[in-house]
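testing teh design pipeline on a random one, pls ignore if ur not involved
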């Protein structure tokens, strides 16, 4: 078995693996932060990054001054890992405590978005995270675009894995006098907070109102 074969499938608790592309897309679309990992000069490198899935592409961006990001943009093998923690699973013993989660890993080589397409890619990334925001702000300057590195990771067949747990705790000893169950977890938006330099009379824009009200 080659290294690629080992990475292409879930081996431990394989019954939790999901092979449907729809499951992958649902996880990627539900989250907005993933951990991008690679090896730089023989040393492990991992950093959390905002991302957005647009079709078969995962868009990310960072500073052109980030040497490790330039390294992966030049074609170094990389992996993006995303996890959604849906609940803490409490059993009647610590050994069987667990968590309900959805996780995905996408592997491949990142490529730089061409300079003449970087502005459009950054708009796609922004609007995937906050739909409509790009129409409410000024356009990026040439200096800002020159300082920003937009990269993309293509979702390819066999280049990803998904693992999901969505179940109650194992029975363990089945002691009815010890509480066991699931504590659901979720991320919610709160009331938006105006920046100190924004006029108090400036209304909250539509994109932010939609973001807050979609709970």
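output:
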């Amino acid at each position: 078995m080659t290294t690629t074969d080992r990475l292409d499938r879930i081996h431990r608790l394989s019954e939790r693996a999901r092979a449907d592309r729809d499951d992958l897309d649902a996880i990627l679309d539900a989250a907005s932060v993933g951990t991008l990992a690679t090896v730089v000069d023989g040393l492990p490198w991992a950093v959390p990054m905002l991302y957005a899935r647009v079709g078969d592409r995962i868009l990310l961006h960072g500073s052109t001054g980030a040497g490790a990001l330039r390294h992966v943009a030049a074609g170094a093998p990389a992996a993006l890992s995303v996890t959604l923690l849906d609940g803490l699973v409490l059993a009647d013993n610590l050994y069987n405590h667990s968590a309900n989660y959805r996780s995905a890993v996408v592997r491949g080589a990142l490529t730089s978005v061409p300079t003449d397409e970087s502005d459009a890619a950054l708009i796609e990334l922004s609007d995937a995270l906050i739909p409509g925001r790009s129409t409410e702000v000024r356009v990026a300057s040439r200096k800002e675009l020159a300082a920003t590195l937009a990269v993309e990771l293509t979702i390819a067949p066999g280049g990803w894995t998904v693992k999901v747990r969505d179940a109650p705790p194992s029975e363990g000893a089945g002691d009815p006098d010890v509480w066991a169950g699931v504590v659901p977890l979720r991320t919610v938006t709160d009331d938006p907070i105006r920046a100190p330099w924004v006029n108090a009379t400036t209304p909250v824009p539509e994109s932010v109102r939609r973001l807050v009200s979609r709970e």
